[in-house]
Amino acid sequence: GRLTYTISDYVANSKDSEVFKIDASTGKIYLNASIDYETKNTYKDFAKVADNGKDKGFENYSATALVTINVIDAPDPPEIVDDGKKSYDVAENTPTWTVIACYKVKDEDEKFLVNANIVVKNASNLKRSSFFGTGLTKKDSIYELCLIKSATALDYETMEHSHEIIISVTNESNLTTEISKTINILDVNEKPVIYD
């Protein structure tokens, strides 16, 4: 006869059964929500199968089995904790190595962060790409990624006033995360220069 499959929590109110769904006709179990090894790596549910004996004048029978689902860890990319700002204003006379912004960097797998990089989008030349840089430091188990003003001078009168940049960080699993920002160059009243 026809069999019907259902799934339910092994531990009452654990909601483990909501993470998965079972095909009522075949008994196949599918993922129904996102899972994260670092948050929870084992789920336990009851899988139940029942027949339709009463439809044919017999007693209904059912069987229940405990199903344990183990989550296998997979490499995760690092996470840059963004400050929520879309842009930063930087005066043209900002000293070299001035810190513009810093971000905490998390890596759930505790992988070693091997690289931090910055790319100026639509850069027309290498000089424009060298206006800004990144610094990556580690204190205990926490990484800090900082956006800095590099050694290349800023000149409001001769350069574009807005720069779109991409800041990225890569871990030892070669997984990369990036965020996008805009840097606006501000004009500064400079002393006149007399040439002989």
Short recap of the structure:
The protein is mainly β. It has helices spanning 16-19, 126-129; strands at 3-9, 20-22, 29-31, 42-51, 62-70, 79-81, 87-91, 99-106, 113-120, 132-139, 142-149, 162-171, 176-186.
Features:
196 residues; mainly beta; four-stranded antiparallel β-sheet; four-stranded mixed β-sheet; 2 helices; 4% helix
Shape: rod-shaped
Strand content: over 45%
Strand order of the largest sheet: 6-8-11-10
SS-based structural class?
Answer: mainly beta
Count of strand segments: 13
Number of helices: 2
Largest sheet: 4 strands, antiparallel
**Cα radius of gyration in angstroms:** 29 Å
SSE succession: EHEEEEEEEEHEEEE
Helical coverage, percent range = under 10%
Distance between the termini: 104 Å
- Summarize model confidence as the mean pLDDT: 86
Uncertain stretches? none
Instruction: Give the oligomer, counting copies of the same chain as homo and different chains as hetero.
Output: single chain
Describe this structure in words.
With 196 residues, the protein is mostly beta strands. It has 2 helices and 13 strands. The strands form 4 sheets. It has a 4-stranded antiparallel beta sheet with strand order 6-8-11-10, with no helix packed on it. It has a 4-stranded mixed beta sheet with strand order 7-13-12-9, with no helix packed on it. The radius of gyration is 29 Å and the shape is rod-shaped. The termini are far apart.
